[in-house]
Specification:
By secondary structure, the chain is α/β, with parallel strands linked by helices. It has 3 domains: about 10-95, NAD(P)-binding Rossmann-like Domain (Rossmann fold, 3-Layer(aba) Sandwich), CATH 3.40.50; about 110-275, Mur-like, catalytic domain (UDP-N-acetylmuramoyl-L-alanine:D-glutamate ligase, 3-Layer(aba) Sandwich); about 285-425, Protein-Tyrosine Phosphatase, Chain A (Alpha-Beta Complex), CATH 3.90.190.20. The chain is built from 17 helices and 17 strands. Strands 7-8-6-9-10-11 form a 6-stranded parallel sheet. A 6-stranded mixed sheet has the order 12-13-17-14-15-16, with helices on both faces. Strand 15 (about 340-345), helix 15 and strand 16 (about 365) form a beta-alpha-beta unit. The chain is globular and about 65 Å long.
């Protein structure tokens, strides 16, 4: 929609993660003079930097110099970069407009956007909406915070295409004109209080998803969430409520609500649900060793997600949890813990904080690494148990993201399986 606007503009991107790299690629294609800066410096970033510099993009690692900010027409901020970043502060001091990757992509998107946010369940719902649209014969791009940046897909999206877009509160902080045709708010609970001063700030960030909508758009809200229900009168869009239906979970009910707006047959959506085998790192079966099942739920970065996981397992559980604390209310897990948990193995920065809470309900051990946690969990297990990695925390104290954490967990489990098989053969 705004291709010519970016031509010859001087633009700096803050943050060299996935969204930053995708933003740089898009702006470079649009003819902008692109620079990108990151305060970290490691081998992975250097590899990414080399690929970008080959395209004529300026890259700065290991800090944010004033030269990379001053005199720019625009600064694009990656979602993981907080307002306290020196680069963001400098841009504001210089009076340079700031937008996020989500806004950049939206300004160049011709398709119809269905945006999904909430404290948990976003990735699953975004994926199911995309598959429902595909089953209905629509051309759809499933992207956003799900792992494929919106700005990396936007050039392929035509005016008759759909976008099933996962958006986070971090991305919504820096939108100006972003206006999804359908906005979906799944749920709201305490999260990211390491970034927000208070819970109300986090809520206000989430509500920005519908701030630019008008009477031609739709806002889909969880009718069973009192906080979100109270937000309905603030909307200018048509409000559609969803609630849990018999035989379905709440995520599926949300997808059906979107399908009804788009006149997609219910039977088609139900078929999609039946054929859906789940996502990697979300309640993913890894292996069974001597009758003990290992489940990878690395995507669970809130207590609500871990509660959901425990409620959907039919076995005694040894829980592996911990990581970087996000201000989550860990007491939410106490009820399910008393019913389902045999043992908890904790690791990462938050292990002491979680242990102080969950230790009221179940025995706790602390591990030095994820491989140590897997070994300890197996030693505490018996045939018929499940070992569940469901961290309730972000991964950034020990891993680059939840995906790396999940992959490492699976590698540890498979290594353990090989060791046990070798031991059995020797016997």
């Amino acid at each position: 929609m705004n291709k010519d606007y970016f031509k010859n503009k001087k633009v700096t991107i803050i943050g060299l993660a996935r969204s930053g790299i995708a933003s740089a690629g898009l702006l470079n294609t649009l003819g902008a003079e692109v620079s990108i800066t990151d305060n970290q410096d490691n081998q992975n970033l250097r590899s990414s930097a080399a690929a970008l510099m080959a395209k004529g993009i300026n890259v700065e690692l290991g800090g944010h110099s004033a030269e990379f900010i001053k005199g720019r027409d625009l600064v694009v901020v990656s979602p993981g970069v907080a307002d306290e970043s020196p680069a963001v502060i400098r841009a504001k001091e210089f009076g340079i407009p700031l937008i996020g990757e989500l806004e950049l992509a939206w300004l160049n998107c011709r398709g119809r956007v269905i945006a999904v946010t909430g404290s948990s369940g976003k990735t699953t719902v975004t994926t199911l909406i995309g598959r429902m649209l595909e089953a209905a014969g629509k051309r759809v791009f499933t992207c956003g915070n799900i792992g494929r940046p919106f700005s990396g897909e936007v050039e392929k999206i035509g005016k008759d295409d759909f976008v099933s877009l996962e958006v986070s509160s971090f991305q919504l902080e820096k939108i100006n004109s972003f206006k999804p045709h359908i906005a979906l708010l799944l749920n709201f609970s305490a999260n990211h209080l390491d970034r927000y001063n208070k819970l109300e700030d986090y809520l206000q960030a989430k509500k920005r998803i519908f701030m630019n909508q008008d009477e031609n758009d739709y806002l889909v809200l969880n009718g069973q969430d009192a906080v979100l229900k109270r937000a309905a009168p603030e909307a200018k869009a048509k409000v559609v409520f969803f609630s849990k239906e018999d035989g379905l979970n709440l995520n599926q009910s949300a997808v059906l609500a979107v399908g009804s707006i788009l006149d997609i047959e219910r039977s088609l959506s139900l078929k999609v649900f039946n054929e859906f085998n789940g996502l990697e790192h979300r309640m993913e079966f890894v292996s069974e060793i001597k009758g003990v099942r290992f489940i990878n739920d690395s995507k669970a970065t809130t207590a609500d997600s871990t509660v959901w996981a425990l409620q959907n397992l039919d076995c005694p559980v040894i829980l592996i949890a911990g990581g970087k604390d996000k201000g989550v209310d860990y007491s939410l897990i106490l009820g399910p813990a008393r019913k389902k948990l045999k043992q908890t193995i904790l690791l990462g920065e938050a292990k002491d904080k979680i242990g102080a809470v969950i230790g009221k309900a179940v025995a706790v051990e602390k591990a030095q690494s994820l491989s140590d946690a897997v070994r300890r969990a197996f030693a505490k297990s018996s045939a018929g148990d499940c070992v569940l990695l469901s961290p309730m925390c972000s991964s950034f104290d020990m891993f680059s993201d939840y995906e790396e954490r999940g992959r490492v967990f699976k590698e540890c489990v498979l290594a353990l399986a090989k060791k046990e098989i070798s031991a059995c053969r020797k016997e």
